[in-house]
Amino acid sequence: DGTVQLDGRDLNALSEEELRRCVAVAPQDATLFSRTVSENIAFSAPAEAIDLELVRRCATAACLDNDLAALPMGLDTVVGERGITLSGGQRQRIALARALYRPCRLMMLDDVLSAVDHHTEKRLIATLQARAKQQTTIISSHRITALTHADRILVLEGGRVTASGSHKELIATPGIYARTWIYQQQLEQTDRAPDDEGGTL
Question: What pTM did the predictor assign?
Answer without folding.
Answer: 0.80
